Structure formats: C-alpha cells, structure tokens
Amino acid sequence: MQEVSPKNADKAEKQEKIVKITALALVVILFLTSIGFNIALVVMLRALSSKIDETPPLTATEIFNRRAASVCEITVAGEAGTGFLVDTRMGFLYIVTNYHVITRLTEGEGEGVPAKLAFYSDAADVYENNAEKTEITLAGYDIYHDIAVLRVTDKRPQKTREPLNEAEGVPARTAEDIVLLGNMQGGGIAAFNGIVSRDCTIVDFVDVAVFSAPRQRYKPVIQITADVNSGSSGGPIFNLNNQFIGFGMAQAVNLGQPVAGVSYAVPAVIAMPLIRKMVWGVMTGGGEIDKIEAFMSKLNGQNTLDLWGLDFSITPLDGGYTVNWVRGPQNTALTQGDWVEIGDKIVSIGGVQTDGLTISQIFGIIGAYRLEGRNEFGLLEIRFTRNGVSRTLRYHNIRRAF
Fold this sequence. Notes:
Largest sheet: 9 strands, antiparallel
CATH topology of the largest domain: Pdz3 Domain
Radius of gyration: 30 Å
Oligomer: single chain
C-alpha cells in the first residue's frame, strides 16, 4: 500500500477545505439571490398595490352611468319617491325605499292603494297596483329607521339586472364627495352632487307626523349638502369610489321652508343588516321586522342610545360607551351572567369592540340581531367593565339574523 506523505496529506486537507468553502459560498450566494428576488417581488407587489389604492375617483357622470339602471321612480297614492334594486330571487325584485314613501301601503288599505314603479333604464320596465292587478307588495319595513323593502313581481325575468350587492355599504366620511340619484320633484331620475357634512348626527324629527311618537323622534342620520327634495327620498347615495353610503331621507325645514344644502340620509351601515332581514323574510307577514330595537333619546341632556330589547341604555363617553340607565332588575328568564349597572363601561357587543365606534355603527350591530322566541340556542354576549373588573352579560333566545 502506497504511503501518503505528511506534505501531501496537508495539501489534500487544504483542497477539501477549499471545496467546502466554495460550496458554502455558492449556497450563500444562491440564498442571497433568492432573498433579493423575494425583496424585489415584494417591492414590486407593494408598488402595484399602491397604484391600485391610488385609482383616481370616478366622476359623477360615471357613477350615474354605472348605477342609474337599477334606480326606479316610485309613486304611491300620488306621492313620489325613489327606490333602488337590492336583490332578485324566486321571481321577485326587491326594492329599497323610505318607509314614509310607502306609508299608505301599510295602513290596512294597501291592496286598494294605487302604486307604480318604473326603472330608469327602460320605459317598458313598469310595475303597478291598480283595480286590475297587484304587482307591488311589502316585504317588510322599519318605521324607526325609515326603511321599507318592496317585493315586486318580475315580469321580465330574462332581463339582465345589476342589484346593489347586499355586501355593499360603507360608513360615510365627513367632507367626502357624493352623488345622490333621485326622482327629482317626481320628474324622473337625476343626479345630485354634494358632500357629507357630518358622517353621523342625531336629528329630532318631532315635526314629521309619521315620526312624532316619543320612541320615533331621534334618529341617527348622515347630513349631506345634496338636496333630498320631494321625490328624491329613498334615492341611493354613492361616494366617488362607487361605494354605497346610504339613501336619501329628508331635507331640513325651518319655519315650514326647506333649507338648501342641509339634508339627511339613512346610513348604509344601519340599513343593510335590516334590509337583509326583510329580503330573506325575517319579518311578520310583510309587516314591521322583528328586531332588538334601539332608539335615540335624551337623558340629562345627553344623547342616549336606548337598547329597548336589552333593558338598558348607553351614552358616548371618552371614545367609548357607558351605561347611563337600567330599566329594572335583571330578567333571569332572558339573561345569565352579570347584570349591568349605571356607570359600567361597555367593551363589546356581539363580539364587536365598541370603543371608537359611532352611534351609527352601534345601531348596525344591534340591527343585526333578532329575537328567536323559544329557540334556546340563540345568544348575544355583552362584555363590560366595572371598577376595572371585566364582566359578561349573556342574552338567551337572540340570534344574528343573517
């Protein structure tokens, strides 16, 4: 056997080290190259994303052209209003408008009240209630929030329609530009430009007969500069990103005269959960929907949200909400856990954190729930703190409605 000299052995060892170092260097180079590629890819994707986020807003003309086809003129007993399509199913069209536009359809004489609905997009797309036929009925309504959904027999099922997607609906933002599509003075669908003056405000509608009852007066609304004149009530409102933020309700009035540039709208974040319930049939025979009611009121000069079905009320305080009134002792047939007391700080309702939420958003949370009667599996959980200690209140027989 040939012997290896110490010199040759040392040389072989050095060559082996060089091979290992070279291999390691190649691995490092490949790894760094991969990182560089990944970083470049991330940078490229972020740049692309920022370009998408920076998509320029649409013009009012573009909003009108994209949305007007699903907007309709409504006339009930000679009174004009506006509606918009939110769903098509089972041979029916579902149209949203204001309750005050279709009040006569709920007064016991609904079947005999003349009504007409005509889509902007097609003069032949007309539906009527008269002595010979009834094509328009009520799917449901909510007097307090001034919302109604009409169920219309679809005579043209082959027609392609684009309803407002039920997942649409975003909070309004103060000072953003908007477009309202409404049946101007009953003369046809037109566009109204404006801005959001206040993303959420509380208005006392004591002078409006249909809302003058104590539990109907104070309402959370969006204040806008686009005039909601006669006929435009119920008209959908979009920001320039083509997002649905609400629909027209009323124009402000002073000494019996309309105030230009001051109108109110139903917030989309409140309306959409209630609309879903009406479309899916969660109501009593086309009547007012079964819900956990919430009402605005005044208590010691403070705006107060009365959670009527939950037996206590809350008021905004330091960016959150505090219990300021409790109706009575705990109803153990309906609840379990800790009962609330005046001064308790509400942390969450139904798993949604309440700090930083507007009153409109709180309304939206409550509007998403309904009473389940004897269904023992329904549950609504409210978390709150008292003197820094976390507590939980649970309501039985209450379930999300969608």
